[in-house]
C-alpha cells in the first residue's frame, strides 16, 4: 500500500537514548539493544510498535525483567509491546545473518569487511527500533569481534575506549552525543588501513580525518582525504558551518548499492568514489570523487544536524546538499564547466524522468517504496529549486536564510515548510507561490515571442509559462522563477536599457516571473534586437524562442556568458539533428562556430571539448514526442562524420599541440588538455579506419584518462587493434574491480546491435558478479542506459535481456534491480515496433517480481495514468 504525506503523525513513543552492543561475526551477529522509551504526553495510550525485519528475537526484557509472552508480539515486520503507559527501558537481543545479506541493506559483508547501509529503512534489519527519521536518540555503540579478523572497529561518533577480551576478541566503544536518527547509524569492521590528517576547525576543535580501505587500496585514498579537508574548510568559509566531532571517518567498500552514505561521523562509500591514482582513475573519476566526498561531508549539516521529519522531505537534505556540493565544485574549479555538467545531466536524465512514467514532484505526496525516490528529481531538480530560490531572494538574503534555517532547526527533524519559513523570514519575501516548485511535477516551459515595430522602434517580449501534465497531475500553476536576458544590437553591442514590465527586477539582474504571462517592452530601439535568455541556466526550464540558425550563430559570438555560449551551440546541433532548424544552415553555422573555437588557442581547452560534445542520445530523445532510435542515432553519427571531415586539420593540430600540456598531473591545464585531446581523438578516429592515433595513444598512455579515451575509440569504432588493446587492458587490471568495470562498460556501450552477444559472453564468464552492484551497473546499466543501438534493438532482444536480468537480480538486490527497470521510463514514446516490444518485455515481468522495490516500479511503468 501507499504511505501518504498527509497521514504524518509524530511518534507516540520517543527514544532519547539508545545503547547497542554487537557481537560481530560474519555468519551470525548478535545485537543487543537497550532503548529508553518515553511516551509523547500529547498522544497517550499507544502500544509501542517497533520495526524489525529478518530478525531472530532471542530475548526481550523491560526495566530489567523478562517481558511475558502475552505482552508482546512479533509478526516478522513489527514488534508490538502492550501495557506501558510511562517511560521504561526495553532490552532486546536478536540474531542477524550478515553473510547472507545480498540486499546490502542493514549489516552485510563486503569481501572480508562487515559494513552497514541503513538509509532509508535498513536499520530495521539490524535491531528492533522506530525506524523513522524523526526519532533521534543519542547513541552508545559497543562492538566486539575477533581481533585478527576485525582489528578495526568503527561506529558513529567519538571513540570512547577499547579493551581486550578473552579468546582473541576485543571491544571498542563509540559515543555519538548528537541526536541522530537511525538511518544515519553505521558500523564498519575488518582489516582496514587508513590515511589520516589532523586539523583544527574554525571553532578550535581538533579533528582527526581518516580515510579507510582494504589492504593496498589505502595508497589510493590520499586524494579523497584531501577532498574531505577541502569540503570541511569550504563549509566553514561559505556557510559558516563547522565539524562537530573529534573524528571524521570515511570507509571505502567494493560492494555498495548507491554512491555513498553520510552516516554521522562515519561515511561509507562505494569504493569508486574514494580510490584513485592517475594510473587507475580518469580525470572525471577524480572530480566525481571530490564532489561525492564533499556531498557526504556537507550532509553533516544539511541532513544530519538538521534532519528530516519524514521521507517525503527527502529533497530537503538531498536537493540542498547537491546544491551545496555543486557550489563547492564551482568555487574550487570552473563555475561554467560545472554548470555545463549539471545541465547536461538535468536535460538528459531529469527532464526525461519529469516527462516519463515515473514523473513525481520534488516532494511527492505518496510512495509505496521510498528507495525508488532517490531520483534525479529529488536530487538534481531539488538542487535547481534551491538555486532558483537563491536567484529570487539574492545571494545575501539566501545566505542569511541558510543561517536561520540551521539555527532554528539544529537537532530537529525538519520539513520543507521549515526551510521556506527560514528563507521567508530572512529575506522578507512571501514564498507561498514558490512552494509550488516542491509540489508540482514536470519541467516548466517558457514560450517567448517577440514583436518589433519598425516605425516606433518598440520591441516587446511576451513570456508565457506552461508546464505539461504529468501522471496524476493534469493542471499546473505558474512557478516563480528568474528570467535573465540580454538584448544585442545587430552589431553585437549590448542594449543596456531596462524594459518596462510588471515583472519585479531581481537582485542579480533580470526579472522575476511571478505569473503565467509577462510582457517586457523596450521603446525606440533603432533596429530589431537579438535576445539571449537564461544566462547560467538560472531557471531550470525548456525555453522556446523562434531563432534561426543565423541568429544562434550570431548570439554564440556576442554572448559573454560561457554557459550560454555552450548552450547556443547545443541548440544549433539539436536543431540540425531534430530538424527544428534548417538542417543545412544549422550544420554550416555549427561547423563554423566549432572551427573558430578549435582555432582559438586562448579559449579554455576544457570548454572547447564541451562544445565538441554534441547533445547525447538521451537529450535528443527527450526533445522528441516520438523517438525513432535508429534514425536519431544515424543523424547524429552523420553530423559527427561531416564535422570531423570539415575540421580534420584543426583537430590534428589541437591534438598535437596539446600533447605536452596533457602530460601527468591533476592541474586544471593538464586536465583540460587531456579532455580536448580525447575529444579530438574521438573525432579523428571516425576518419581513420586504421585508428593510428588511438593505437599510439593507447600504447604510450601514462594516465588512465588517456588510456581509456584511446580504448573507447578502438572498441567503439571496431578498429584494428581493439581486441588486442582490450585483452591487454583486461589482463593488466584483472585484480582491480573498479578498473575492470571500465573495460566492461566500454564493451557494453559499443554502439552496435550485436553488443548483446558480447554481453552474453560476459555473463557466462567469471567477470560476471551479480552480487556486486558496480559490476551489474557496468554490464547491464551501461547497456540499457548508454547503448541505444543495443538496448533498442528492433527485435526487442535488448529489452528482453534487461527484463530477464531484473527478474534474476530482484532476488539478490532489489534496489539494484529496480534501478535497472528505470531504463524503461520513456518506453511509451518509442516508435513502433519498439514500443510494442518494450511493452511485451515489461508485461512478461508481471507476477514474476517479488520485492516491493521492483513491483512498485513495474506497476508505475505500466500504469495508464
Ligand atoms: N543519502 C545518500 C546520499 O545521497 C544516499 C542513500 C541512498 N540510499 C538508498 N537506499 N537509496 O548521499
Ligand atoms: Zn545525499
TrEMBL record:
Its cofactor is Zn(2+). Transmembrane segments: none annotated. Residues 101-184 form the Aminopeptidase N-like N-terminal domain. Pfam families: DUF3458 (PF11940), DUF3458_C (PF17432), Peptidase_M1 (PF01433), Peptidase_M1_N (PF17900). InterPro entries: Aminopeptidase_N-like_N, Aminopeptidase_N-like_N_sf, PepN_Ig-like_sf, Peptidase_M1, Peptidase_M1_dom, Peptidase_M1_pepN, Peptidase_M1_pepN_C, Peptidase_M1_pepN_C_sf. This is Aminopeptidase N. It comes from the Bacteria. GO terms for biological process: proteolysis. Its EC number is 3.4.11.2. Residues 442-545 form the Peptidase M1 alanyl aminopeptidase Ig-like fold domain. Keywords: Aminopeptidase, Hydrolase, Metal-binding, Metalloprotease, Protease, Zinc. NCBIfam families: pepN_proteo. It is an enzyme of class 3 (hydrolase). Gene3D superfamilies: 2.60.40.1840, 3.30.2010.30, Neutral Protease Domain 2, Peptidase M1, alanyl aminopeptidase, C-terminal domain, tricorn interacting facor f3 domain.
Amino acid at each position: 500500500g501507499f504511505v501518504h504525506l498527509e497521514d504524518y503523525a509524530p511518534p507516540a513513543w520517543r527514544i532519547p537514548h539508545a545503547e547497542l552492543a554487537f557481537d560481530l561475526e560474519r555468519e551470525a551477529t548478535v545485537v543487543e539493544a537497550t532503548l529508553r522509551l518515553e511516551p509523547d504526553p500529547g498522544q497517550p495510550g499507544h502500544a509501542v510498535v517497533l520495526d524489525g525485519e529478518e530478525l531472530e528475537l532471542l530475548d526481550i526484557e523491560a526495566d530489567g525483567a523478562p517481558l511475558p509472552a502475552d505482552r508482546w508480539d512479533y509478526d516478522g515486520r513489527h514488534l508490538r509491546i502492550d501495557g506501558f503507559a510511562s517511560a521504561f527501558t526495553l532490552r532486546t537481543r536478536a540474531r542477524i545473518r550478515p553473510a547472507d545479506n545480498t540486499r546490502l541493506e542493514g549489516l552485510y559483508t563486503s569481501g572480508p569487511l562487515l559494513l552497514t547501509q541503513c538509509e532509508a529503512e535498513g536499520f530495521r534489519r539490524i535491531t528492533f527500533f522506530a525506524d523513522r527519521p524523526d526519532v533521534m536518540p543519542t547513541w552508545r555503540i559497543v562492538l566486539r569481534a575477533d581481533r585478527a579478523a576485525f582489528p578495526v572497529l568503527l561506529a558513529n561518533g567519538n571513540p570512547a575506549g577499547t579493551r581486550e577480551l578473552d579468546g582473541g576478541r576485543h571491544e571498542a566503544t563509540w559515543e555519538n552525543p548528537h541526536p541522530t536518527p537511525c538511518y544515519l547509524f553505521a558500523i564498519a569492521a575488518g582489516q582496514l588501513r587508513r590515511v589520516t590528517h589532523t586539523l583544527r576547525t574554525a571553532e578550535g576543535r581538533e579533528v582527526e580525518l581518516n580515510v579507510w580501505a582494504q589492504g593496498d587500496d589505502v595508497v589510493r585514498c590520499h586524494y579523497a582525504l584531501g577532498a574531505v579537508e577541502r569540503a570541511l574548510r569550504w563549509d566553514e568559509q561559505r556557510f559558516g558551518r563547522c565539524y562537530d566531532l573529534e573524528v571524521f571517518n570515511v570507509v571505502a567498500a567494493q560492494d555498495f548499492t548507491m554512491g555513498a552514505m553520510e552516516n554521522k561521523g562515519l561515511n561509507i562509500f562505494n569504493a569508486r568514489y574514494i580510490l584513485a591514482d592517475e594510473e587507475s582513475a580518469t580525470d572525471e573519476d577524480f572530480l566525481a570523487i571530490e564532489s561525492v566526498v564533499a556531498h557526504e561531508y556537507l550532509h553533516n549539516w544539511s541532513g544530519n544536524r538538521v534532519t528530516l521529519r519524514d521521507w517525503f522531505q527527502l529533497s530537503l537534505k538531498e536537493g540542498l546538499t547537491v546544491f551545496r556540493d555543486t557550489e563547492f565544485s564551482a568555487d574550487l574549479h570552473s563555475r561554467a564547466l560545472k554548470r555545463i555538467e549539471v545541465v547536461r545531466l538535468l536535460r538528459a536524465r531529469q527532464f526525461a524522468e519529469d516527462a516519463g512514467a515515473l514523473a513525481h514532484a520534488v516532494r511527492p505526496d505518496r510512495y509505496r517504496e521510498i528507495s525508488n525516490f532517490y531520483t534525479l528529481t529529488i536530487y538534481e531538480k531539488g538542487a535547481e529549486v534551491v538555486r532558483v530560490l537563491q536567484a529570487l531572494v539574492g545571494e545575501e538574503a539566501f545566505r542569511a536564510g541558510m543561517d536561520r534555517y540551521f539555527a532554528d532547526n539544529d537537532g530537529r527533524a525538519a520539513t520543507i515548510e521549515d526551510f521556506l519559513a527560514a528563507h521567508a523570514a530572512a529575506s522578507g519575501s512571501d514564498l507561498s507561490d514558490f512552494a509550488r516548485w516542491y509540489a508540482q511535477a514536470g519541467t516548466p516551459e517558457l514560450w517567448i515571442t517577440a514583436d518589433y515595430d519598425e516605425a516606433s522602434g518598440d520591441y516587446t517580449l511576451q513570456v508565457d509559462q506552461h508546464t505539461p501534465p504529468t501522471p496524476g497531475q493534469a493542471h499546473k500553476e505558474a512557478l516563480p522563477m528568474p528570467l535573465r536576458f540580454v538584448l544585442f544590437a545587430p552589431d553585437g553591442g549590448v542594449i543596456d536599457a531596462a524594459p518596462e514590465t510588471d515583472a519585479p527586477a531581481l537582485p542579480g539582474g533580470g526579472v522575476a516571473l511571478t505569473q503565467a504571462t509577462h510582457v517586457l517592452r523596450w521603446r525606440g530601439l533603432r533596429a530589431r534586437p537579438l535576445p539571449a535568455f537564461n544566462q547560467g541556466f538560472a531557471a531550470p526550464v525548456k525555453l522556446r524562442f523562434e531563432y534561426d540558425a543565423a541568429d544562434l550563430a550570431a548570439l554564440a559570438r556576442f554572448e559573454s556568458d560561457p554557459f550560454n555560449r555552450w548552450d547556443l551551440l547545443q541548440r544549433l546541433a539539436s536543431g540540425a539533428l531534430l530538424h527544428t532548424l534548417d538542417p543545412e544552415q544549422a550544420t554550416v553555422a555549427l561547423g563554423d562556430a566549432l572551427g573558430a573555437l578549435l582555432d582559438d588557442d586562448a579559449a579554455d581547452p576544457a570548454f572547447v571539448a564541451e562544445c565538441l560534445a554534441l547533445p547525447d542520445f538521451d537529450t535528443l530523445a527527450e526533445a522528441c514526442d516520438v523517438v525513432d532510435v535508429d534514425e536519431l542515432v544515424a543523424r547524429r553519427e552523420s553530423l559527427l562524420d561531416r564535422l570531423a571531415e570539415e575540421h580534420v586539420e584543426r583537430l590534428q593540430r589541437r591534438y598535437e599541440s596539446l600533447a605536452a600540456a596533457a602530460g601527468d598531473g591533476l592541474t586544471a591545464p593538464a586536465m583540460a588538455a587531456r579532455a580536448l585531446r580525447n575529444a579530438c581523438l574521438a573525432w579523428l578516429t571516425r576518419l581513420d579506419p586504421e585508428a593510428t592515433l588511438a593505437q599510439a595513444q593507447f600504447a604510450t598512455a601514462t594516465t588512465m584518462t588517456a588510456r581509456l579515451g584511446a580504448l573507447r575509440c578502438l572498441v567503439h569504432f571496431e578498429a584494428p587493434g581493439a581486441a588486442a588493446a582490450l585483452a591487454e587492458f583486461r589482463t593488466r587490471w584483472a585484480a582491480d574491480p573498479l578498473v575492470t568495470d571500465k573495460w566492461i562498460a566500454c564493451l557494453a556501450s559499443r554502439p552496435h546491435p550485436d553488443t548483446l552477444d558480447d554481453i552474453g559472453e560476459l555473463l557466462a564468464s567469471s567477470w560476471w558478479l551479480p552480487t556486486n552492484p558496480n559490476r551489474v551497473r557496468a554490464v547491464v546499466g551501461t547497456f540499457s542506459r548508454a547503448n541505444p543501438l543495443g538496448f533498442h534493438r528492433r527485435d526487442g532482444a535488448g529489452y528482453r535481456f534487461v527484463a530477464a536480468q531484473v527478474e534474476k537480480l530482484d532476488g539478490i538486490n532489489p534496489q539494484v534491480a529496480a534501478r535497472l527497470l528505470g531504463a524503461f521510463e520513456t518506453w511509451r514514446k518509442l516508435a513502433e515496433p519498439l514500443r510494442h516490444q518494450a511493452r511485451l518485455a515489461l508485461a512478461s515481468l508481471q507476477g514474476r517480481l517479488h520485492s516491493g522495490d521492483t513491483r512498485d516500479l513495474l506497476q508505475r511503468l505500466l500504469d495508464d495514468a
